[in-house]
Amino acid sequence: MWCGGFGFVRYFFNRNTCKLLNKERNRVAVIDFLIGFISDDFKSILRLCEYSREEGELGLKYADKKAHDKLEDIQRLQEDYTMLLCSCESIRHRKQADGLFDKYLNQSEEVNFDMMWAILDMYKAATLSCQEKDIENEAIALARQGRLFEKLFKLDIKAKTYYRRAFDLAQTLMPRDLSKLDWFQECTQALERYQKKVVEEEEAKKAAERAKYLPKIRDAIRKLDESAGYLNF
């Protein structure tokens, strides 16, 4: 059934592994497990995905066409490593942008809009690379754009929009606990700051409105006091 040298395919499609991957919950768990390593070593995962792609294509070419279950397994594996490739591309763009962001924020005293726009383009590429495929990395890329607009562009409205989009995406990952992840903490803290700022601005606006009527109120009270004094006399 298999052509010689299909090491990766044989590993994934031995009798026991097929039974494991046929269960959707287990399959998702395996993919999530692999994605967990991407942030630290996405280049290795990228090489693994490229190898598995070639093995999968050979598997489809030489597999027994009557073995529909094995063909379906290979196709599912192809879908999985396609998702991993998207994640790797997203992380690659994001790490490049992070490096430039840290360098610009810590070392540059002059405003360099060309650099700022270049960083933004990388974060957008990170978002598009995994959009609707890898929710967590998409959310991280959106949160990074929020940070960029907050720290460098100084555009709070845009920053809040991206932070909110990242937060909303993160909610779809529940019941997974994201509270200890740096990017999620940054996102929630930023939204809390903006919410607090809105409340303070609304309170200041109300105070300003009340201040306009204070002279009239004081004048009315003074007249009432004078009238009361006249009646007492």
Tell me the layout of helices and strands.
Layout: H1 7-12, H2 15-21, H3 24-62, H4 68-107, H5 113-129, H6 135-153, H7 156-171, H8 182-232
Helix pairs in contact: 3-4, 4-5, 4-6, 5-6, 6-7, 6-8, 7-8
What's the average pLDDT? Answer: 78
What is the distance, rounded to the nearest whole angstrom, between the alpha carbons of the first and last residues?
115 Å
Specify the biggest β-sheet.
Answer: none
Radius of gyration: 29 Å
Percent of residues in helical segments? Answer: over 70%
As a percent range, the share of strand residues is under 5%
Give a quick precis of the structure.
The protein is an all-alpha fold. It has helices at 7-12, 15-21, 24-62, 68-107, 113-129, 135-153, 156-171, 182-232.
Describe the fold and architecture.
α7 crosses α8. It is elongated, with a radius of gyration of 29 Å. It is mostly helical and 233 residues long.
Main features:
233 residues, elongated, mainly alpha, 8 helices
